[in-house]
Amino acid sequence: MVLVNDIWKEVKKIVGNSDDAWTFTRIGDAVELLANKGDFDPLLGTLDICVSGKIVTLPPEIETPIAVNMNKNPALGRDELFQFHLNGPGQCGQAIRYEYTDLGDACTYRELACPFQLHAYCVESADVGKSLRVFGYDQGQNWVRTEISAGVFVDGYLVPVTLQIGVNDADAPFFTRITKITKDLTEGPIKLVTVDEDEEVLLGVYQPYETIPRYRRIQLSHCVSQVRIKFRRRTVVPRSRYDLLPLHSNQAVIMMLRAMKAYDTPGGFAEGEAFEATAVRWLSEEQITRNPVVAHPIQVTDAASISDCDQLN
């Protein structure tokens, strides 16, 4: 991978005498643009995770699940629309073979089992009172809004962040579904929990850099104890000169930054395209040298093996 510090001097020549925060942002933009050009080795990873039930919420560094093994068996991937397909499981059954369905992004590790008030606590005293706003629906299926002054309402509920779980305001809403969370930058992680009969139920641990948490979620066709996931990493903006960028070519990142600078210049579109094409070519050539000589046999899906509701019932 590319160490930010190794390209820092060249990056500063291109970006100019800007503050470090803007420089890191431009590096992150360059990496994201290059990452969109293909599945390069540093962007890929493998995760073994124990599961309970059929819903699996993936860690924040995962952008997209590429392949899944359930109990060491290959699983067939489906998108969210497959539950409406005539050959799909619908809502009244499940497929006989191993399958998983991409459910998109979620902001919590798990769904709420029943209406609960929310608690948030931190590990750093400097984070006490930081903003953690939760959006969603209450037990009456009403959109949660908070009155901040006479007749003035804002969406969501600002969960108090404390060093330990305290007693919530009696008027705090009971959430049945959480749709979005926003949070301040913090010194340490923030935990969001509910309390069920004096037992904590963890909904999320939000890292200092997360401001709008989102995690990829998949649904399994069977209850299994373990899954292995091949995934594509999420690209994030680096925060220090000693962060690693998920690419192998220093020069490709530098060339992409030159392309972005050209795009920002009036009349520099053609020059920017030339720089970008060179950056992508260098990165692709580097990847080709790392690819082993392997064969991928054709995969055949037997639609007859997918049972419908009548067969299952």
Explain what the structure shows.
With 313 residues, this protein is an alpha+beta fold. It has helices at residues 4-15, 20-35, 250-263, 269-290, 309-312; strands spanning 2-3, 44-50, 55-57, 62-70, 73-78, 99-106, 119-122, 132-138, 145-149, 152-155, 157-158, 161-162, 175-183, 190-196, 199-206, 215-220, 226-233, 244-245. The termini are far apart. 24% of the residues are buried.
Distance between the termini: 52 Å
What is the approximate shape? globular
Rg from C-alpha positions? 24 Å
Number of helices: 5
| Element-by-element helix/strand order | EHHEEEEEEEEEEEEEEEEEHHH
Query: The biggest beta sheet, please?
Result: 7 strands, mixed
Helix-strand category: alpha+beta
Q: Determine the strand fraction and express it as a percent band.
A: 25-35%
Low-pLDDT ranges: 305-313
Task: Say how many strands there are.
Answer: 18
Major sheet strand order = 2-17-4-5-6-16-3
Overall pLDDT: 87
What secondary-structure arrangement, pairings included, does this model have?
Elements: E1 2-3, H1 4-15, H2 20-35, E2 44-50, E3 55-57, E4 62-70, E5 73-78, E6 99-106, E7 119-122, E8 132-138, E9 145-149, E10 152-155, E11 157-158, E12 161-162, E13 175-183, E14 190-196, E15 199-206, E16 215-220, E17 226-233, E18 244-245, H3 250-263, H4 269-290, H5 309-312
Parallel strand pairs: 5-6, 7-12
Antiparallel strand pairs: 1-18, 2-17, 3-16, 4-5, 4-17, 6-16, 7-14, 8-11, 8-13, 9-10, 14-15
Helix pairs in contact: 1-3, 2-3, 3-4
